Amino acid sequence: MPEAPAVQIDNLSKSFDGVEVLRDISLTVNKGEVVSVLGSSGSGKSTLLRCINWLEEPDRGSIHIAGQRIGVDAQGKREQPRPGGDSRAYRHGVPELQPVAAPERVAERHGSTDAGEEDA
Known about the structure:
Elements: E1 7-16, E2 19-29, H1 45-52, E3 60-65, E4 68-69, H2 88-91, H3 103-109
Antiparallel strand pairs: 1-2, 1-3, 3-4
């Protein structure tokens, strides 16, 4: 049986005051993969991370961490976002779900010497 993805997001959407910040976002991150979320100010990067950590409740969609759906209790009822977020990402070995101040730190941590270098 194949291992569940570290993070599986399906059709995630979130709005604030009628403004859709995230629209049908789907993403799969397998264990050991490194993913960067890039975008201009106000494009929804932090909102996406806040939804993954269950600091914000998405309007639609689902989030699974290591195969376990977050935001839904054992009876299938939606849970309220927690002030401290959902620590399942850390318990299941996905510590990469945190903002990184500088791309150079990611590059250093994963063995690259030039964070700005693109593949040819």
